[in-house]
């Protein structure tokens, strides 16, 4: 038992080194992409006449997606299939849990996120911010709940697509093979 516990805790030490800091150019283009992507998604509310305080198009999970697609565009979870599929599948999952299961919110939240992970695995669309999109469907305001399944289309799918367009432009402006985006579509 002591050996098992020792092995368990020794795995928590880690064995590798942290990645080096990216160049200032890399950091600059990450900033440009995230600024433009979030600004574009946030500006969609004005097109629909939605007040700033009810900004349903600007959901928290898009902030995490911005880190992936603009800050680390080369990683598998940042690829378009993952960005679009992960958000969309997770949003549908969260809405389905809310619509069909009249259980306490903490169970809805746990079920929505864990099922979203299962469905992202099964469809090979793991995108960590997708878990937040499913959670927002559960814990969101009455305006989010009123959207029903359309939440998966707007703001989630439409917002992810807008951010993808910005990622395609910003990550390919320079001839930096490391920033080349996407690495794969499907």
Broad shape? flat
Strand percentage: under 5%
Return the average pLDDT rounded to an integer: 92
**What Rg is obtained from the alpha carbons, in whole angstroms?**
18 Å
Beta strand count = 0
How many angstroms does the end-to-end distance come to? Answer: 45 Å
Identify the quaternary structure here. Answer: single chain
Order of helices and strands: HHHHHHHH
What is the count of distinct domains?
1
How would you describe the overall organization of this protein?
The chain has 186 residues and is mostly helical. It contains 8 helices and no strands. The protein has one domain (24-170). It is 64% helix and 0% strand. The N and C termini lie far apart (45 Å).
Task: Write a brief caption for the model.
The protein is mainly α and 186 residues long. The chain has helices at 2-10, 24-47, 61-71, 80-100, 105-123, 129-139, 142-147, 153-170.
Helices and strands in order, then pairings?
Layout (H helix, E strand, L loop, with lengths): L1 H9 L13 H24 L13 H11 L8 H21 L4 H19 L5 H11 L2 H6 L5 H18 L16
Keywords for this entry:
single chain, 186 residues, mainly alpha, 8 helices, 64% helix
């Amino acid at each position: 038992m002591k050996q098992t516990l020792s092995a368990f805790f020794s795995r928590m030490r880690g064995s590798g080194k942290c990645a080096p800091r990216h160049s200032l150019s890399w950091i600059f283009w990450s900033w440009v992409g995230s600024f433009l992507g979030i600004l574009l998604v946030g500006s969609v509310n004005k097109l629909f006449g939605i007040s700033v305080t009810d900004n349903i198009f600007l959901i928290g999970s898009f902030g995490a997606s911005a880190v992936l697609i603009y800050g680390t565009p080369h990683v598998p979870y940042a690829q378009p299939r993952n960005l679009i599929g992960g958000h969309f599948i997770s949003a549908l999952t969260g809405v389905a849990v809310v619509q069909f299961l009249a259980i306490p919110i903490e169970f809805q939240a746990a079920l929505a996120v864990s099922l979203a992970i299962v469905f992202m695995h099964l469809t090979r669309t793991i995108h960590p911010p997708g878990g937040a999109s499913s959670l927002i469907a559960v814990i969101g305001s009455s305006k989010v709940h009123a959207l029903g399944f359309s939440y998966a289309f707007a703001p989630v799918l439409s917002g992810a697509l807008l951010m993808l367009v910005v990622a395609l432009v910003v990550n390919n402006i320079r001839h930096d093979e490391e920033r080349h985006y996407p690495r794969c579509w499907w």
